[in-house]
Amino acid sequence: MDHQPTRDNLYNAFISILTAFLLLSGLLACSSQKDTFTNRLYHNTTARFNAYYYAKEKIKELENKLAQEYQEDFSQVLPVFYPIDSSIIEANEELLVEAREMASKAVDWHKISKWVDPSYLLIGRVDYYQAKFDEAQNTFKYLNVNSAQDEVRHESLIRLLKSFIDLRQFEDANFVVDYLSKEPSISRENKKLLYTTLAYYYEARGETDMIVPSLFKALEFTDDKAEASRINFILGQMYQLAGLDAFAYEYYQKSLSGSPTYERTFFAQLYSQQVAELEKSKDLKRVGDYYDNLYADNKNVEFRDVILFEKGRFEKKQGNLDEAIRLYSKAAKQPGENDRQKGYIYEELSEVFLREKEDFLKTKYYLDSALAKFKETDRNYASLASRKVVFDQYAENYELLTRNDSLLRLSQLSAAEQEAYVDTYLAQEEERLIREAEEASEKKTTGIFDNLLAFGGSGGGSTSSFYWDNPAAIQRGSLEFSRTWGNRPLSDNWRSSNRGFQDNTDETSPSTAVEAEDLTETSSEASFATQLPDKSSLLSQIPNEPETRQKMLEETENAYFNLGKLLYFDLKRPETAIANLEKLIDEFPETPKKPEAYYTLYLASRDLNRNPERYAQLLNTEFPNSQFTKSVNNPEEVSGSQANFESAQNYKKAYAHYGEGEYAAARGIIRETLNRYPLSKHTDRLLLLDILVAGKLESVDQYKERLEGFLQNAQDEKLLEFAGNLLQAVSEGDASDVPEEQTAQMGAEDGSGEEAETAPSTPGDLSPYSENPSQTHIFILPMGEELAENVGNLTAELENFHTANFTNERLRTGTIALNRETKILIISPFPNAEKSLEYLDTFLNSFNNDSLPEEIKNSSFVISIENFQQLNKRKDLEEYRTFYEQAY
Question: For bias kind Polar residues, which ranges apply (predicted)?
C-alpha cells in the first residue's frame, strides 16, 4: 500500500538535509566568527536546539519537582507560586549544574547567535534557585540594560521583581512594577508571568483584595490548562473566604477542568458543595448523606479524615457538639499520610475542649497531638507551642493532685483493706477488658465466605469459635498468661529461669487513669491483649511510710496552690480558682502559701463580685505585715513597669547603704519601697535584703526565723538557693554575722540604669537555658498591667507593621500572663534565631506607637520555643536576660 508523504515526513526530511548542510558548513564556521549568513544560521540553530534547549529543560525539570513534592495545604488558601524548598534544591543540585554548563556553552561557543541573551537569562535563573540572589539580580539588571531583545528584557525584569518580593525589598519591587507598566508590546507569555508575579506581590504584602484581579489577568494569558485549574481553585478559595459563595462555586467548578490532581479534584468538589448547598441546607439528613456517600466511596479512602472533619464542622455549626467531637475523634484515627491535616483536626479538638467543654486536661493532650503533626516551620506551630506551656503546667499539677489524693486515701486503710481494694480493682478491670473485647467481637460483621475462610474452607465451625479471630478469647488468654507469668515483655526465650517474676510491672495507679480513649490513634483491636497491672506493683504505690505520706501531702499542697493561680491568672477561670484555693486553706490551714492564696482569692472574688472584703479582712487580721496585705490596702499605688523601675532603683540605693554598714538607712529605703510598691517584680529581692539587714540588727533566732519564712514563700529558684545557703551558714555559726562572701552576692547591677540582678550564680552553676539557634523562635514584649489593658490598639498597629514588612511570614500575635504583674505579648513564629533577630532589629528601628514607651519597647527580646517553656515555668525575666545577653 502506497503512503502519501505527510507534513511530519517532509519536516523530518528537511531537518535531515539542514543538519547535513550545517555539519558541512560547521567545519568552516567553527574556525571563524564572521557575521555571515552561514555562520549565523549554524550558531543560531545549534545554540537553540542544543545548549539552550537542554539548559531550559533542566530548569523546567527542577520546577516540576518543586511542584510535585510540595504538599498542598487545602485547608488554607494555596500560595500563588509553589514555595521553594531548599532540601529539594539540594537534592537536585546536579540539574542546576548541568543547566549552568549548557547555558554557558550557548554563550561561549555561539557568541554571534541570538540565543546568547536568553542563555544569560537561564544563568540568572540558576543563580536564583541556588539562592545567589545578588548574582541573579545583577544578571537580570544587565539584560534589562543591554539586551536588544524585548522579550528577554521583560522576562528579566519580571524575574527581578520576584526576587525583590522574596527578599521583601518592596521599594525596589514598586520601581520595577512602575517601569513594566510603561513597557509596550509585552509578549503573551511574559504577561502571564507578570500578572502571576503581581498576585504574588500582593500576597506577600497581605493586600488580598488585589490578588484576585491579578489572577484574573493571569488567566487571560494562560494557555496551560493545568496552571489555569490551580489558579481557578485559588480564586474559589478566596471567594469562599470572602463569603461570596456563588462566585466561589463557579471557580471551584472551573478548577475541575485541566486535569487537576485527584486531591485538588476532591477538595474542589467538596468545597463546591459546601458553598452551594451544605452550609445553608435545612435538610440535615441530606447533608449527612452527602458526607456519608463521600466517605463510602473507595476513591476517597485517603481523604476520609477530611470528610469526617468537615462533617464534624458542619455538626458543630448546627450545635451538635458531642456529635462533632465524635466525628473529629474518628477523623483523627483514620489512616493517612497528610500529617498537617491531622494537626488541624487535633487543633480543632483542643479548641472545642478549651472553649466549649473547659476541659483543660484534654486540651493539653490534643495540643500535644497537634504539635506532633505540624512542622516547626508551619504557620501555627509557635503559637500552639506557646499556648501549650500553660496547659502542661495545669496537667502536671492536676494529675499529681488526683493521683496523690487517691493514694493518700488508700493509705488510711488497713493492709487487709488495701489488698481487698486492689483485688476488687483488678477483677473489675479484667471484667471491663473482656467486656470491651466481646463488644468488639459482636460489632464484627460475618460475611458469607467467612466461615469457609476461617478453616481454609473445611467448614469446621463459625468464625467466633476460631481463637485468632475471637477478640474475647484473645483477651482471656492474655489475662490468663498475665496471672500465670506476670507482665513480661515480648521477647525470645521468655521462659528462661533467670528472669524475675515482675520484670516489667505496670506503674499505673488504680485511680489515676485518664479517660482519653478519643486521644489515641490506635485501633480498638490493638487493645484486646492489654495486660493487667501486677497486684504487688499496685500495692507498692500506696504510701504506707510516714515520710512518703508527708512528701505527698507537700506535693498536694503545692498542687492546689499552683492550680489556683494558673486558673485565675492564666486560664481566666476565677470560680474554679476559688474552689482550689479554698480547698488548699481547708486541708492545709497552716500553709505558708496562705497570704498569697488569700490575695488571689481576693482578686478572683472581686472579679465575680463575691464579697472580696472577706479576704481583705483575713489578710489584715492574720498577716498585717504581708506584701499582699499592703497591695490590697493600697490599690491605687503605682504598679507595672513604673513600679518595677522605681523598686529596682531603690534596691540599688538600699544595697549601697547596706554595703557601707548603714543598716538603718538601708532598712528605711527597703520598707518605704515595699509599702509603696508591695508587689513589684523585685519584692522578693527587697525582702531578702531586709532579712540581711535583720541579720545585722536583730537576734540570730529572728534572723533564722525570717529566712525560714522566706524559703517557704519565695518562688525564684536562685533566691531560694541563696537564702538556703545563708540559713545553713548561720545555723552552723555561733553568732549573727552573715558571711561576707554570701552577702556580696546580693550586689546591684552597675551602670545599666535598669534593674538589679536577681542573685548571681556561683561558679559552675548551669543556666536552665540552652543555645538552639536553629529552633523555632518567638518575639517577646513584656508589659505591665496598665499597658496590657490597652493592648488592642497595640495589636492592631503591629498587624499593620507586619503587613508592611513581614507579610509572607504569616506572623501571629497573642498575649499571656507571665506572672501576677507582668504580661507578655508574643509574636510568632520565626523559623530560627536569625529570622527572629532580623524582626527584632526592624521592630526597634521602624515600629512606632504612641502607647508604647521607649523603655518598654527596648525591653523586647527573642527566645526559642524550648527556652520559652523554661521561662514560663520559672517566671524570671532577668534570669533569661542574663542568658540572652551572652547567647544573642
Answer: 493-512
CA dist., res. 404 & res. 569, Å (int): 25
What the block records as the C-alpha cell of 210 is 488585589
> Are residues 47 and 202 in contact, defined by beta-carbon separation less than 8 angstroms?
no
CATH architecture of residue range(s) 52-278: Alpha Horseshoe (1.25)
Q: What cell does 353 get?
A: 475542649
User: Could you give the dihedral angle defined by the CA atoms of residues 715, 721, 727 and 733, in that order, rounded to the nearest 10 degrees?
Assistant: -170
CATH of 546-633, one of 1.10.10.10, 3.40.630.30, 1.25.40.10, 3.30.930.10: 1.25.40.10
Q: Strands across the sheet with 861-864, in order?
A: 812-817, 822-830, 777-784, 861-864
Is residue 170 within 8 Å of residue 205, measured between CB atoms? yes
Mean pLDDT per block of 10 residues along the chain (888 residues) reads 52 53 48 49 49 86 93 91 92 92 72 76 94 92 91 95 92 92 93 96 89 94 95 95 90 94 93 76 77 92 94 90 95 89 95 94 95 85 86 94 92 93 89 81 49 38 42 57 51 37 34 39 44 84 93 95 92 94 96 93 94 94 89 69 77 88 88 83 86 86 85 81 84 55 48 37 55 85 75 74 78 76 83 88 85 85 86 82 84
Amino acid letter for position 358: E
Q: Is 756 exposed, middle or buried (0-12, 13-18, 19+ CB in 10 A)?
A: buried
For residues 833 and 862, is the Cβ–Cβ distance under 8 A? yes
Cell triple for residue 400?
499529681
Nearest to 478 by CA among 425, 437, 530, 436: 530
Specify the CATH number of the domain 641-746: 1.25.40.10
